[in-house]
Amino acid sequence: MKDIISSEPITISEVREIFSQIDPDQLDQIQRWTFDYTAKFSKTDPDKARLMRRALIEECDLTDTEAVEIVNIMPETIAEIRSFTFGWKKLILAETLSKMLRILKET
Predict the structure, then answer these.
(1) What is d(CA 57, CA 67) in angstroms, rounded to the nearest whole number?
(2) What is the spatial distance between Cα 47 and Cα 53, in angstroms, rounded to a whole number?
(3) Is the pLDDT of residue 59 over 80?
(4) Is the terminal CB of the chain with fewer CB neighbours within 10 Å at N or C?
(5) What is the pTM of this model?
(6) Which residues touch 35 (CB under 8 Å, ≥6 apart)?
(7) What is the CA angle 25-19-100, rounded to 5?
(8) Which are the contacts of 20, defined by CB distance < 8 A and separation ≥ 6?
(9) In the chain, what percentage of residues exceed pLDDT 70?
(10) Which of 72, 73, 55 is nearest to 11 (CA)?
(11) pLDDT band, residue 87 (cuts 50/70/90)
């Protein structure tokens, strides 16, 4: 087993990209399940996911983990964004919610 050198949250699209670079015959059962999951549930391509994540962090003052959650879910309305951000236990202004939605739609 390899030692973990560092860790960072990444989007489902980025996970799919990593798995797609590996020969499927080299994947164990859990890795295959994970790859299948990412193929079914990734909502954008990895490059767009990275751009959205970066923009959410820089323009909306989100943490990396929060930005990844939003990109993975890809909410389509402010009400949907609020339902996810409510659990973060921090106040997010309506202006920031609108900015988040704009980033998801325009990127």
Answers:
(1) 6
(2) 10
(3) yes
(4) N
(5) 0.88
(6) 16, 19, 20, 24, 27
(7) 160
(8) 35
(9) 99
(10) 72
(11) confident
Report the sign of the C-alpha dihedral through residues 71, 47, 14, 90, in that order: negative
Nearest partner of 49 among 10, 96, 81, judged by Cα: 10
- Given this model, what pLDDT does residue 89 score? 84
Give CA–CA dist 29/107, Å, rounded. 34
101: left (phi over 0), alpha (psi -120 to 50) or beta: alpha
Nearest to 68 by CA among 8, 7, 10, 6: 10
Q: Which amino acid is at 2?
A: K
Summarised one tens digit per residue, pLDDT across range 1-41 is 578 888 999 999 999 999 999 998 999 999 999 999 999 99
Above pLDDT 90, what percent of the chain?
84
Neighbours of 67 (CB within 10 A): 23
